[in-house]
Design a protein that fits this description.
10 helices
């Protein structure tokens, strides 16, 4: 990726997170980045190519995280949840796009890849004898985390600093996806 593409990707993520794929236009993305629409088309052949480029780092990051997972015991699970929350913080806008807009974008390869990876996370954390209720609990945990990272300050109190919020989210995720297994606050 060229250095000229970086501001476009950042602007695209902001737009896709705010208004979804359908609502974002190349002109709005260009305006957000302070560039011309022709600059967008110079770097990306289409809105779909820009969408893929904007989400690709999150997809690759989650894939890397899943390749290194070791859920051996509570310490391994706690480590994974902490690293997963770090991943969510690092890719909060991409996660918002995937969680909030992904169901309307099935069939787009990067969204389908994201769905497969999220299913792998859910399978790792869901008890072997887990129920559909456990699957719903996981969905609420993931969507709630995305909400807290991006939009909670719009309806709640002022946003907590990341260094305060990070261990809280790790603990709450553990409470939700591993009910009955109290893990210490990181």
């Amino acid at each position: 990726m060229s250095s000229g593409a970086a501001p476009l990707i950042a602007a695209a993520l902001r737009q896709f997170a705010a208004v979804g794929f359908e609502g974002a236009s190349l002109q709005r993305i260009a305006d957000d980045a302070g560039l011309s629409k022709s600059s967008v088309l110079y770097h990306f052949s289409s809105k779909e190519a820009l969408f893929d480029a904007a989400l690709r780092p999150a997809i690759e990051g989650l894939g890397t995280l899943l390749e290194s997972v070791d859920l051996d015991g509570d310490a391994g699970t706690q480590d994974f949840l902490a690293r997963f929350v770090d991943f969510l913080f690092d890719h909060r806008l991409a996660i918002t796009v995937i969680v909030n807009h992904g169901s309307a974008l099935r069939g787009i390869p990067v969204i389908d890849e994201a769905d497969q990876l999220v299913r792998r996370v859910e399978q790792l954390l869901r008890p072997a004898e887990g129920s559909e209720r456990d699957a719903v609990r996981f969905g609420v945990a993931l969507a709630g985390t995305a909400f807290v990272l991006v939009a909670a300050d719009r309806w709640g109190t002022e946003r907590l600093p990341d260094e305060t919020l990070r261990p809280m989210l790790t603990s709450v995720l553990a409470d939700l996806v591993l009910p009955g297994r109290a893990l210490p606050l990181a």
